[in-house]
Amino acid sequence: MKKIVLSIILCVCANLSWSQRSQKIAYIDMEYILENVPEYLDAQNTLNAKISKWRKKLDDQARHIEILKSDLANEKAILTKDLIEEKEQEIGLKQIELRRLESLFFGPKGDMFTVRKQLVKPIQDQVFNEIQAIAKRKKYDFVFDKSSDLVMLYSNKKYDISDFVLASINRSRLIETKNEKKSKKKNKKKKAPKKQLTDKQKEVIAKKEAAKAKKIEKVNEKKRLIEEKRKAKLELRNEARKKLRERNAEKKRLKNKEKNN
To answer: What residues contact 197, with CB distance under 8 A and at least 6 apart?
Structure first.
């Protein structure tokens, strides 16, 4: 079907070329291009690994449900009505959870859609940009993708009115901005000049700074005295230990002397 439509379009373009200037048409195979982009293959492999993980989780849960159903069928004859209803309710809840997971993983806005968008779309956009650059450089009027439903990837710039639309929006925005500036200018009040400090205020600030400096000096002096006391205590302790060692050494010497006599 796609080939038929493509043939019709090419024929129409060919007929138009007899009455108008010659138009340059090209096509690409997006699938072939992407399959030969290493980054795309890496992204696709990552996505496939995630899909396999999600499918395994769904399969495990589905098998668990089948086991529960089989066990219930085998034990139904010896179970009470309440137990049967309880097990059926449990199976029903697990089936609901399974459907929820299926939607979470493979739904229209599921994880697969999100991951594909994150991994694959940037690469596809890069390819599209490259195609557009080539089309402009080679002066192609139309570029088609034969692996898709003939989505037009590029058209001649002269048929694009986007710039005219943007220019119109920018003109309207510029007018609005000018009107806002005029309105603000009319209602704007003059800023009061920065007040100069009076002599009294300066004196108060100076006193506060002096008091702060004095307080810091007292704290530092207190720290110095504490450190000096600590050193003095340490020296006294070391001196006492030295004298004790000397007395012990003298006692040992006298003891040895008596033993030798």
So the answer is: 205
